[in-house]
């Protein structure tokens, strides 16, 4: 990801800090400096840095819980508004999602408990109000902030952990898609309530409400897309008409093909129609700038994953998101390239199916429609 610095790796997960987070730290320093001089400025930065260490540990709570179920996490990024761990997938088994969702806040419960023990148990709500005051002990503020993190994250609305906890609990009694829909509706109801509170009180609540409302619709949409894909195969959605380039082609040849067609990705195939890689429009332009039109497509191309024609479409979609691949090559049983699958053409097919769920057009018309869950 651009604009973020990798500061290290923990068990295969890259820990990144977004540039805006560093700007945020600088802003904190200046804000505290104006109020109480250099001493206060460093105290302020130390508190925010420690707070975000707690946020990072919270994310690693999720990451380590997910590892138990075989889900890897390539990276976690710290932003001024919190941490985002990019899990390869969210476990769909309700009990597993429940554990993964709860593991994050559980870390903050432990941190708060340890800090409270260290402080001898005398920290109360008054410290949350005086959190801006540099005189209040750093540890007490940190304990209060961890308690706040637990409460905030357990609000039962996406994208908070509480939304996932709610979905997991609902999914124990209904289908995953239904549970998501119900959890999203509850979250949106909460967001509206929060927005109304914001009108009469803190305007910050209105911003949070809008954020929560949009996140809930996004989550519901994603699950709908997955549900549409269920029961379909890669061959139902793949592009079958496209131009290919030979291994001896130059980037200049590829540029000509780019103009001649509407394609943006060109597969490079050898004499046996085996896929060697894919040359994207961006890679083509980079190669033209760096090496000129004579450069070999083999040097400029990128390798992409391949799937069989009978692979379930949802699994191929997951592969595209996990690997960040521009396209996926579709091969027949002999390993020959017979199709391409891109996020765009899958999206087009989804729109067609959403518009006419029972229509009998397209390759899937040959088979009976996928089974729908009984309401
Ligand atoms: Zn969390």
From TrEMBL:
Domain of life: Bacteria
Subcellular location(s) per record: Cell membrane
Keyword Lipid biosynthesis (UniProt): no
Domain CBS positions: 238-296, 300-360
Segments passing through the bilayer: 15-33, 45-65, 98-118, 138-158, 190-216
InterPro entries per UniProt: CBS_dom (IPR000644), CBS_dom_sf (IPR046342), Peptidase_M50 (IPR008915), UCP006404_Pept_M50_CBS (IPR016483)
Keywords tagged on the record: CBS domain, Cell membrane, Hydrolase, Membrane, Metal-binding, Metalloprotease, Protease, Repeat, Transmembrane, Transmembrane helix, Zinc
Cofactor binding note: Binds 1 zinc ion per subunit.
Alphabetized GO MF terms: peptidase activity
Co-factor requirement: Zn(2+)
GO BP term, example: proteolysis
Pfam families documented for this protein: CBS, Peptidase_M50
Extent of the signal sequence: none
Membrane topology: Multi-pass membrane protein
Record family assignment: Belongs to the peptidase M50B family.
Annotated protein name in UniProt: Zinc metalloprotease
Organism: Ancylobacter polymorphus
